[in-house]
């Protein structure tokens, strides 16, 4: 498996995924993540101040079990989102699986293809460099745009569970998805 000492830089035409730089990224990400709508299905709340944003970005950049990126607009050079994947786990049968991924994108970037670009970069890295067999993702069934995004990438639903979203104070269906290397290589995003 790959060495995870340094977060790889991943580039496309419109975005760059790079290591989170807390002092640089926190002020801009705070401005963008104050919108409560981007937190509706995340299980957390909008940050109260830039220091809270700094703390959260620092936490994600230091969790040893994940690879975390800031999604940077190549046009502005500023953060527009975050993306992290759990580091691959090798199972006794030899399969290598990433058990979870999490993304956040600024509302002004919704439905403009930025997350699709980020996912393509991350999946190419995971399947081709890390040589994983599957990537798993969890999403709330009522989060229709995220469900569509995963399914568009080629993910297949394999389990649903009813769970409490404490932030909302109600139960919702969590959908568990997965995508295999073979499915990814044949997906619409690879074309």
TrEMBL record:
<feature type="domain" description="N-acetyltransferase">
    <location>
        <begin position="15"/>
        <end position="191"/>
    </location>
</feature>
<dbReference type="InterPro" id="IPR000182">
    <property type="entry name" value="GNAT_dom"/>
</dbReference>
<protein>
    <recommendedName>
        <fullName>N-acetyltransferase domain-containing protein</fullName>
    </recommendedName>
</protein>
<dbReference type="InterPro" id="IPR051531">
    <property type="entry name" value="N-acetyltransferase"/>
</dbReference>
<dbReference type="GO" id="GO:0016747">
    <property type="term" value="F:acyltransferase activity, transferring groups other than amino-acyl groups"/>
</dbReference>
<dbReference type="Pfam" id="PF13302">
    <property type="entry name" value="Acetyltransf_3"/>
</dbReference>
<dbReference type="InterPro" id="IPR016181">
    <property type="entry name" value="Acyl_CoA_acyltransferase"/>
</dbReference>
